[in-house]
Amino acid sequence: MADQRLTARAREIVTAARALVEEAGPEALTMRSLADRLGIKAPSLYKHFPDKAAVEVELIAQHLAESAAACEAAVDRAPGSLAALAEAYRTHALAHPHLYRLATEGPLPRHALPPGLEERAAAPLLRVCDGDAERARAVWAFAHGMVILEIHGRFPEGVGLGEAWKRGVTAFEGSAR
After folding, report:
1. What is the pTM of this model?
2. What is the pLDDT of residues 28-51, one digit of tens each?
3. Is residue 70 a contact partner of residue 89, using CB atoms and an 8 Å limit?
4. Coil, helix or strand for 51?
5. Which residues have a Cβ under 8 Å from the Cβ of 93 and sit 6 or more positions away?
6. Would you say 71 and 85 are in contact if contact means Cβ atoms under 8 Å apart?
7. Domain 54-173 indexed as CATH 2.40.360.10
8. Which among 111, 140, 146, 112 is positioned nearest to 125, based on CA atoms?
């Protein structure tokens, strides 16, 4: 679904930016590299976006919307299942590791995101946690920590992370009120 807040040209720019990030990581995204990919001069980008941060906000918004959709689907398929939700979160993050990094390794630009998007992204977890925001934050911290360590290759090769995920999720399931 195309973001109707953006012009067709701005959506084209964001698509090219996403391709750069997905291929080479967030560090590869510069206005110059983006312009080169589009076959234009970098100053032309500023007609559509004031700076690189504005392009990044659009990519972060895409990540949040897609992650929310994946998590909503998991919760709809398996209501109340923290394991299903954690698997959907992990699967989406690992399918888009560079985009995940861009969206989660720095401050969240809340002020620039589409209204309600952050809440939508959090809603499936809050639903599974029966509205307990503190428990949801703790679960998210566990899931994010596991995913980011996996993306950065911080676990020894051959380690069965499935069991670590299972134990973590089981611990949080046991922490319900």
Report:
1. 0.93
2. 999 999 999 999 999 999 999 999
3. yes
4. coil
5. 67, 100, 147, 151
6. yes
7. no
8. 140
